[in-house]
Specification:
The complex is a heterodimer. Chain A has 6 helices and 4 strands. Chain A is an alpha/beta fold. Chain A has one domain. A 4-stranded parallel beta sheet of chain A has the order 2-1-3-4, sandwiched between helices. In chain A, helix 1 packs across helix 6. By secondary structure, chain B is an alpha/beta fold. Chain B has a 4-stranded parallel beta sheet with strand order 2-1-3-4, sandwiched between helices. The radius of gyration of chain B is 14 Å and the shape is globular. The chains are: A alpha/beta, B alpha/beta. The interface between A and B is large, with 39 and 35 residues. Bound molecules: iron/sulfur cluster (2 copies). Chain B: InterPro entries: DGC (IPR014958). Chain B: Pfam families: DGC. Chain B: This is DGC domain-containing protein. Chain A: This is DGC domain-containing protein.
């Protein structure tokens, strides 16, 4: 069984990029380490063959900070099969007025939003793996 | 010179500790060490964005900050935007074993990790000031 690739944009300017990054790290390192893994997005951007081979033809879940969808677009360009795209900016719409932190560190409220998103991602991982069987 | 802006671009790699250090050292430049003079860009915008993003290395002198010797930020910048002025490779500063160690979340950063960030940020500062002096 191949692992589902969970790829965040890790945007550097705003909190949304860090939320995407932390969600991916939490899913791949803590919640679903045997079923998922992440890939350096900047390596995919270089177009190197060895980075491409890590995602080409594999199911991917992308987590972007904003509508520019950098992770989703770059994963698709490299041949990844993007099964689901998340945008942390959308997750924040359900938490209006909440201070999630900065691109350097999340607040406890920011972590709550990340935790909620991680639950959704984990459910999606399970769905994808069922489909693949 | 007072208006000089210098680009600091991190790979923010997700697969290893070096990527997290590159990102946090870059954030430190933006927030604490050279605020107002440091500019940055979300690296994957070279492909997902437009002309404006690809103009970055022509508009500013750029220091790339990479987590490991693959130097993705440097190579992506030179492929899509323009020549970089200097590079920082976390693995050269902290060693390969540290750079390629398991990645950490910001919530699990220890004081040792923060010292690593400071060490890398210091090197970025030195390179930053050298570029600023020569402008
Ligand atoms: S999706 Fe938005 S936040 Fe994420 S890297 Fe791209 S521009 Fe930055
Ligand atoms: S330089 Fe290393 S840590 Fe950074 S994105 Fe590339 S492979 Fe990942």
């Amino acid at each position: 069984m191949s692992k589902v690739k969970v790829i965040p944009c890790s945007g550097i300017g705003k909190v949304f990029g860090l939320m995407a990054r932390e969600s991916a790290l939490k899913v791949t390192n803590e919640l679903k380490p045997n079923e998922t893994e992440t890939v350096c997005l900047a390596h995919i951007v270089t177009g190197d063959e060895d980075s491409k081979s890590k995602i080409e033809g594999f199911p991917c879940i992308t987590i972007d900070g904003c509508p520019k969808l950098c992770a989703a677009k770059n994963a698709e360009l490299a041949g990844g099969i993007v099964k689901m795209q998340y945008r942390t900016v959308d997750e924040m719409r359900n938490h209006r007025g909440v201070d999630a932190g900065t691109a350097t560190a999340l607040t406890p409220d920011g972590w709550k939003v990340v935790d909620e998103l991680c639950e959704k991602i984990c459910e999606k991982v399970d769905d994808i793996l069922k489909e693949e069987k | 010179m007072a208006d000089l802006k210098i680009g600091v671009l991190s790979c923010s790699g997700e697969e290893c500790l070096g990527g997290t250090i590159s990102r946090l050292a870059t954030r430190k430049m933006l927030e604490e060490l050279r605020p107002g003079q440091t500019v940055t860009l979300c690296l994957p915008l070279y492909l997902a964005g437009g002309e404006e993003e690809r103009f970055f290395a022509k508009a500013f002198p750029v220091i790339t900050v990479d987590g490991c010797s693959k130097c993705c930020a440097k190579r992506a910048t030179e492929k899509y935007s323009g020549k970089v002025s200097d590079i920082v490779d976390v693995s050269e500063i902290l060693g390969n074993d540290v750079a390629l160690d398991k990645t950490v979340s910001t919530k699990d950063m220890t004081s040792q990790h923060m010292e690593m960030v400071d060490k890398v940020a210091k090197v970025i500062c030195e390179k930053f000031d050298k570029i600023a002096e020569n402008k």
